[in-house]
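Design review, sub-item: ligand-bound model
Attendees: FS, YL, KQ
YL presented the inputs for the pyridoxal-5'-phosphate complex:
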Amino acid sequence: MQWNEFSDWGAKISQWAADYHTNLRDRPVRAQTAPGDVAALIAPSAPEGPHPMTEIMEDFERVVMPGITHWQHPRFFAYFPANAAPPSMLAEMLVSTIAAQCMLWQTSPAATEMETVMLDWLRQAIGLPAQFSGVIQDSASSATLAAVLTMRERALNWQGNQAGLSGAVRLRIYCSAEVHTSVDRAIWVSGVGQDNLVRIPIAGKLRGMDPVALKAAIQADIAAGYRPAGIIACTGGTGTGACDDLTEVVRIAKEFDLYSHIDAAWAGAGMICPEFRKLWQGVEGADSIVFNPHKWLGAQFDCSAHFLANPSSLVKTLAIQPEYLKTHGHDGLINYSEWSVPLGRRFRALKLWFLLRSYGLEALRVRLRNHVAWAEDLAAKLVENPRFEIVTAPILSLFTFRIAGLDDAAQIAFVNRVNDDGQIYITQTKVDGKIAIRFQIGQFDVTEEDILFAYDVMCELAG
Ligand SMILES: *Cc1c(COP(=O)(O)O)cnc(C)c1O
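KQ shared the predicted structure:
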């Protein structure tokens, strides 16, 4: 492709993007295709000769678009949002144009320095004290893995990477049953092993770990000859938005010299509003915190902000410096690839700069506050309607409900009916062993009318 052709297509595609977003309400939210439908439309092997761009774009509309679930649809109430605000999308266009690989300071100083400053903007925006420094990870899963590896190395006196785990003392890590499955995977991958992930029972309205049970479990493990290594707490768990009591968790972590990691992947964005910070009171005592600007805040995937009270234990765990990665004569520079498992890194900080400048924090706060208020309003409407029952009250903008009096199979059938209908999109979870339907409000363009519309759709399809 020649550059003049590229600029024609670039203009066409950005027009396509604006049209797509403007007309999203006309499309079904969840893809309505059957398994195999899309693959059947794709040629089984690569062509030997070139295809014209016109044909490729036509095929994109014909083959790809029907098989897309529209995460930017204003009536997307499933999972958690994956917002991509327009300025963030534009920044990503520039990033993919420059296509720099930003593993070291010298492989693009602007990317490293922008990342340092943007993480400090975010730190201030969510009210963390100045001692925290940050890095952008590709996902919260990676940040949690990095934290678990740090817990492991710290508890093994920094010998685990070298000596391996066979024959080592048995490590123990603690969390509640409300944490995301990325915690389980980090435990597997780190070699700590699922049997050493200790699930602490939950108590109270916010479904947090019971601190008394947490302390008792740690003491029992020490008595049994195990070595407690860390605690993983959540602010805004995936199923119901569960929040651990971080003041207590951090106090216990310090009492037993354990490393603490807080997974606030979704809820962390809410902390730009000071009134929501009570949900993670005590967070300033944690060692490591992750939140995803790529969920609720509007920075296009991927962008996970990982904050560290003291990055040196993370760097000690992950830094590796073969000769070809040394940046001679520039000691003291940050090479962010030493803060994460992958070596290669995209320039992910630019979209934060575009996003935060283009809106300003106050406009983002207004959006999030609206989502929380509308979730409370919708939950209140469902309480009043005898066909529904609330299972867990809203935590920020997430709550769960059921169709009153029906069994699990009927709840799932309802979710499928709603999603096959396509006008809105919701998903389910399990609460205390029973199916509950999740409803979260967080899509960037959602309006109060969309919420009223969703209520009508659910009433109609509840039967
Ligand atoms: C979404 C989510 C994750 C996983 O986030 P990724 O960035 O996709 O890895 C982890 N924890 C919680 C609480 C989440 O909501």
